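Researcher: Structure for this, please.
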Amino acid sequence: MKISFKADTVLALTVLFLLLFGLIMITSIGVPKSISLSAPDVLYPNCSDGKVDCYLLFKNHLVRLGIGLASFFIAFKVSIKIWKKLATPLYGIAVFLLFLILIFGRSFGTIATNWLLFFNTSFQPSELAKLALVIYLAYWLSKKQSSVESFKDGLIP
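Model: Predicted structure, token format:
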């Protein structure tokens, strides 16, 4: 029996294209911001100057992209049984981080205070909350597999 992986290939190529497109965009539009972040005290910054890092945002993005890809491959290799065990604690941690935003949230020039500073980088707990919610709902619906067909029995807690 031959199994077709056409959809997986298309999805993987689409993700790869979006990652490369993001790197190109960060490189092309991030130079002025990189200059202002790396050398705010230089009056006339130049990329050939040793103090100025014209690709600071690109380098930061590349590091975060590497962390994200490594996390993806690690999560891909984790057994479904472990994800089921982690669903509730992960959801609890996400809700706790969302409450921390109310106390320690930072705005970074916007009205919304939905960022937390974490080891010299900013972090949006809402992104983790989305992932945790999907994992928790998948776990919850897998427990109610026999009664999911009925709205009353399957989706109402």
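Researcher: Any notable elements?
Model: The chain has a mean pLDDT of 85. Helices lie at 6-29, 31-38, 56-77, 80-104, 125-143, 151-154.
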